[in-house]
Amino acid sequence: MEFVLKALEGIFSIVFIIGIGFVLSRRGWFDEYSSALIARLVTAVSLPLYMIVSISKNFDHNKLVAMAPDLLLPICSMLLAFGVGKIAAHVFKIKKERRGIFCTNFFIANTMFIGLPVNLALFGEKSIPAVMLYYMVNTTFFWTLGVHNIVQDTLSDTKNKPAFFSPAALKKIFSPPLAGFIVGIILVLLDCRLPSFLMNSFQYIGNLTTPLSLVFIGIEMSKIPLGEIGFDKDLLLGVAGRFLVCPVCVLVLIPFLPVTTLSAQVFTMQATMPAMTQMAIVAKNYGADSAYAATLSFLTVLLGIVVVPLYMMLVNMYI
């Protein structure tokens, strides 16, 4: 029971920080300009530097190359979950302006701020390489496929929506966070280490990413009358996709894409994490339904208090 409570500390922290943003916003500390500024600061400054630091500190050339074969399971499971999300969006007639967020929520999770402490509590420090491997795939897909789908929500003319590899689409997708991630990978592959003062500066600024993202969610939630939060099919199916579809996709593929037992356990736990907090930031930046994204993020965090321990016990017993 102790390791469950320790693992849930990350979720409790998230709820607390979201609450700060919510309360301060209700007291008039933030206006629409403040919200947009936070979204821009995270996307353009703190998150790119966070990417460079996290990749550079947790991988080296040999480790990255040695673990490359294990990338296949998270890649295939996320693509499968994405496909299920796409089908569900059409079958259940999810609102067009929400479909990109809905589908992204199916295959992208909060694999660092919550996923890392959960796996550390459950499996110890030996789980860190597998945690980071899933995180790499999760991050790559979010800032490419996920962002592309969220951008699609903002384009009303369906006939003229750019293809994934069109110049217009690539210009939007190639965001500062993705650039930071690519720089981090290149530095690792070249065995290049930045000067300590630069890495420390990147670390300080990068550490702003999670708290600012959570405060932003609190601000967005404060704009929605709590009594009017509609638990409609868009929201409920989004939650189901996050907590049911994504981990099941990992479990279904394990017999066909075998990895070590520890990696299988870690990947399954990573797939059960709440929604990625930056999803609401991206929705705000591109003019998508940020209120829906923020509500989905907040609701999955709250439900994670119950769902995550259940998966922790199941994974510990059966994988």
UniProtKB/TrEMBL annotation:
It is a multi-pass membrane protein. It is found in: Cell membrane. Its main location: membrane. The keyword Membrane applies. The keyword Transport applies. Keywords: Cell membrane, Membrane, Transmembrane, Transmembrane helix, Transport. InterPro entries: Mem_transp_PIN-like, Na+/solute_symporter_sf. One of its GO terms (biological process) is transmembrane transport. GO terms for cellular component: plasma membrane. Gene3D superfamilies: 1.20.1530.20. The chain crosses the membrane at residues 6-25, 37-59, 71-89, 101-120, 132-151, 172-190, 202-222, 234-257, 291-314. Belongs to the auxin efflux carrier (TC 2.A.69) family. PANTHER family: AUXIN EFFLUX CARRIER FAMILY PROTEIN (PTHR36838), SLR1864 PROTEIN (PTHR36838:SF1). This is AEC family transporter. It comes from Phascolarctobacterium faecium.
